[in-house]
Amino acid sequence: MIRNKIQDWLRKNKVEGRLEHPADKKFGDFSVRTGSEVKLTNSDLVDKVEFVAGFTNIYLSPEVLIDRAQKIKDGKFKKDLARGKNKTMVIDYSAPNIAKAFGIGHLRSTNIGQAIYNLYEILGWKCIGDNHLGDWGTQFGKLIVAIKKWGKTAVDRMTVEDLEKLYVKFHQEAKKDENLVGEGRNWFLKLEKGDTEAKSIWQKCVEISLKEFNKIYDLLGVKIDYAYGESFYEDKMPAVVEMLVNKNLIKESQGAKIVEFKNMPPAMVEKSNGTTTYFTRDLATIKYRVETWNPDLMIYEIGADQSLHCRQLFETAKKLGFTNDFYHVAHGLIRWEGGKFSTRKGETIHLSEVIDRAMEEAKKIAPNNSQEQIKAVAIGAIKFNDLAQDPKKDIVFDWQRVMSMEGNSGPYLQYTYARCVSVMAKKKLDVRNKKPEKENWNEEEMNLLREFYKFEEKIVEAADRFAPSVLAEYLLNLARSYNEFYAKNRIIGEKEEANRLFLTESTASILKQGLELLGIETVKKM
User: Which of 23, 190, 342, 511 has its CA 20 to 30 A from that of 522?
Assistant: First the structure.
């Protein structure tokens, strides 16, 4: 990676400081604050060095830029990124709840989680994705009560939407009848103890939900390695509780079992009625993952509202002797303008509705494309709208923004790729074995050439920051640079055709590779 080589060169010259890309390309490819002018030894990487206003500005040589672009274009750069060799990462992502339709709110975890998985994989890590399904807990006791009281058909003939409506009805009725909450707790206790009726109803709810979720994953092009629901850890919790007891971490509190912390509220291990908690199941999950995969890093791509839970969980895991690294990618919520979505109140947007509408919008801008290409544009619009934004920030759900087919969007990148493909289809020269000239580049050509090498470092930065938005922003900048170059320069039939085809092929290759890392397909025509 060129950045690393420049840093090594500066260190040899005893120059320390943060290496940055100047906002204005006229100040070079890299800049470091040195305060005063410094004397640097020659480097094959560097064309020239200038000192301006306390900064040492470094300009890479065209030969280096071309050679690196060639390597990236041909996909031969990946071995240079293999920082994760012999390392294993487990990422917990998506995790929809059984008996609830796959809502727009679960899109963030699914998209961001899959993109982080892809980024770590290209960096050489062995990656394991685990879909920690929400298929256990008191809510299932409530759902069983609702099914028995208000279900109008046999459970196995219900849809996820039917189950979700019954869950909403339970909470509406519980406002009038406080006894319903107790009934729900009792039915979950029966479920935990293996009651035949409770287990049968629950199993049917799981099967109905998984069928629906898999349809969504197929549409999104997402395939998660494992889908171990919370119920998978039911028989593994006693061992974790025993570990907590042996480490003297369990305290009794009003009949419940808790773990206390110095700077946080306590976490509940077992309720007073003997039922287990989300916290206990997550500890059992960590134990299983360590014993099964022994990962160096465990990433939890779950909402920012789970930050306290994650801090409690990670601290307890360390106290139990798990030395693995843990990281919580705390994504913000997708909200209404009036506040947070709530399944209990029936205020949610199903992802299937968003996809259907996106398909209709995609048909308007790509009317001559096949159904598969239209789907790629629609899904690309939805995914990129999410991935291009800072994971930590909340997103106010805005139909126009989600469906935007112009500007800073997935379709804009897909259109730029299709434009490159169209140019290459008209080429008159065979440039496979013809290297571009190293001199006589105009401003737009040079500006584009100076974007390519950054692809590698943006992959690394996006992984290090657990932020696919870093890569998304880079791809947008690349597309803008190409479109500016395209608008001002004829390509086919010009004496510069070889150079300009090289720029076009490099742009297309990086857009394709970058979008694939974000889980977005390219299309050859729009």
Answer: 23
> The CATH number of the domain where 255 resides is what?
3.40.50.620
**Contacts of 304 by beta carbon, 8 Å cutoff, 6+ apart:** 330, 331, 332, 333, 392
Question: Is there a single domain that holds both residue 96 and residue 53?
Answer: no
For residue 134, what is the DSSP state? B
Question: Do 231 and 97 reside in the same domain of the chain?
Answer: yes
Cα distance between residue 180 and residue 182, in whole Å = 5
Contact 119, 463 (CB under 8 A): yes
318-376 pLDDT tens trace: 999 999 999 999 998 777 565 555 545 555 667 887 888 889 888 888 888 899 999 99
- Asked if 93 and 306 touch (Cβ cutoff 8 Å), the reply is no
pTM: 0.92
CA–CA separation, 206 and 231 (whole Å): 11
Q: Are residues 131 and 279 in the same domain?
A: yes
| Residue among 201, 197, 181, 96 nearest 139 (CA) | 181
Closest alpha carbon to 403 in 437, 359, 373: 359
What's the domain range around 304? 88-340
Q: How far apart are CA 95 and CA 134, in angstroms?
A: 6
